Amino acid sequence: MSKNIFYAQSGGVTAVINATACGVIETARKSRKIGKVFAGKNGILGALREELIDTSVESNKAIAALRHTPSGAFGSCRYKLKSLEENEAEYHRLVEVFKAHDIGYFFYNGGGDSQDTANKVSQLSLGMGYPITCIGIPKTVDNDLPITDNCPGFGSVAKYVAVSTMEAGLDVASMAESSTKVFVLEVMGRHAGWIAAAGGLAKSSAGAPPHVILFPEVAFDKAKFLAKVKDSVNKYGFCVVVASEGAQYADGTFLADAGAKDAFGHTQLGGVAPTLVDMIKAEHGYKCHWSVADYLQRAARHIASGTDVEQAYAVGAAAVEFALAGKNAVMPVIKRRSTKKYSWEIDEAPLSKVANVEKMMPKSFITKDGFGITNKARDYLSPLIQGEDYPPYRDGLPQYVQLQKKLVKKKLRPFNPS
Amino acid sequence: MSKNIFYAQSGGVTAVINATACGVIETARKSRKIGKVFAGKNGILGALREELIDTSVESNKAIAALRHTPSGAFGSCRYKLKSLEENEAEYHRLVEVFKAHDIGYFFYNGGGDSQDTANKVSQLSLGMGYPITCIGIPKTVDNDLPITDNCPGFGSVAKYVAVSTMEAGLDVASMAESSTKVFVLEVMGRHAGWIAAAGGLAKSSAGAPPHVILFPEVAFDKAKFLAKVKDSVNKYGFCVVVASEGAQYADGTFLADAGAKDAFGHTQLGGVAPTLVDMIKAEHGYKCHWSVADYLQRAARHIASGTDVEQAYAVGAAAVEFALAGKNAVMPVIKRRSTKKYSWEIDEAPLSKVANVEKMMPKSFITKDGFGITNKARDYLSPLIQGEDYPPYRDGLPQYVQLQKKLVKKKLRPFNPS
Fold it and tell me: Which of chain B's residues have a Cβ under 8 Å away from the Cβ of A177?
């Protein structure tokens, strides 16, 4: 009998994670060897609580519309399973739920933490005599997974940030003589400056914005930064800064530490832009404006990268194909065939090599002064934002789909995740 | 001999003010009765300093590309001419420059302040024996000009805010169970809540985001606001807030007063979103995220409203037609013919009735509890965001035009604006 798939979305959602779900479900629907696709309500919590969304009741049209709908259609969560030693019960519960619902495949769509979980479930289920085929599917706007050339979700944020930087740059340029001289755009990227780097794609000539990029990888030097801003205003009449939320001093202190920590123990950040603006006003007295893109950047399906949408779909489809081919504890990755005339293909990576490895930006991507991106970075980033893939509109608004999210009948006793 | 046009962009730029410039220049190029179109470098300052950009050297292709290029292609400024009594010299200088360059038409593309200036120049030039035909052209993202049904520039910001609210709302909804419960989006609108109201268009059903809108027109009541946020989290699991930068307490104190004032004496605002988030965290302890759209919203040509682009072009074209028809001291306005199947036409209004009048949102547009928009507001707003008008892209980025901006040779002595 055909086994079912359990698919879960994990961590921060993106503009294209539902395109991956679409790739999984459409590909599974075409195969006679696969039963149903169940999706976890709110990610892995849905498995622990036995809250499984039955995607088979959704129309083909609704599933197709996932391709152009941002956010996590089934709900996501930042819940991280503890280590096997600390909470083996949770892993047992997962396998128990999978067994009860005839689930033979676990597809975990997330970042490094999720790939680690998928890998563990694969090992444990084998030991429990109910082997689950575990496929990790890459997703993260942070672009920090190893092996894969890039992560689905990143290209669309990159496009949003590049386009926004270009547009705001034109705005500031046209008013700078008598009004705002400095504009600071704060973007995501906790430990890696990939997203901030994408702002650099807006730079069309030497004097064009952005004039300063702040990366988490480069220790923030206040005096050097303020001098650079002044220099830009003097030379070009204005200064556009793209600042990563993860910008930090040499000792690792974030410029703006909001204090709160999420379930993974990561510090919740926000407020770099106003912090920088305060510094600039105090030192130079320039009129400044600032923007914090926050969720707008990762939800902006309206300006998604066509490349990103295609790749997000492709890794979802590949997960099903891998499973059908008997692969286990692997993740489909994007392999760049060529940069000049950009082409890519799907390859595979063992989860053990993906889990908990954070890919930093190469030093060669950052200019010597620490405030810009090199041509090498441009060559890498540029293809990822190419292509437009607009959602359909009605009455001026995107037609994003809302699924029915019908839950499968429970068969087991309740379980409370810790 | 055919007189030249002087065209100037004034105040905060928009995603479509260049579409108006395109309308002016393309229409003028078709007429044999008009000489050249000179544009003020940095707006009216360009006239005072005799820095006139000769648009006749720009190709038809470059001028056509203005239609899809955001910001002010010739530069704008927040320079406001003083009253005639305080600085008559400036008005004389304007007329002197116009005379020297055979300018018979003054087109001033801006908000209420600019229409006031255009009106004064019209009167004064008559008294000086060199009558200038003065046409005001409406532009303001704030949508606060009287008589015209709406202001070019507003529809595109409205679309940006509605789309962004919808997208961020989906994002928050999909993570709320275990992560962020409240998201606050800060938008522009100093004294009128038109832009914040546009966020309400994202609301597709009773429980859908946004759950709270804060208007400058409704006195901020902290206890009531916090109760509303809590109620929304309890009922729907999350709460999306769209807050106008002009949100204020009953005594007129802005929630976040950045302190600085611009050249018009207006207080420079920013920081409502983090202020609200601090309140919510302190009272309810919810995990919150916030975004400040700032310039991104008014520069976002990539998601401009098709209706707005058409109207922005039309008021530019109409300015030329009005001038050719011998009209003076008037402004083309947008007249709504019908809402149900939206249609509009260009009408005219005397500058004397436009100048310095601020159109507030009708009370009937705000729900009784002060936190939402009524169906009447939706009927008014919805047509303004309809239609998509995407710029062309290359390598993933919009192809915005940069003009040559060649200056006309000076003929007069220097003049320093005060």
Answer: 42, 45, 75, 77
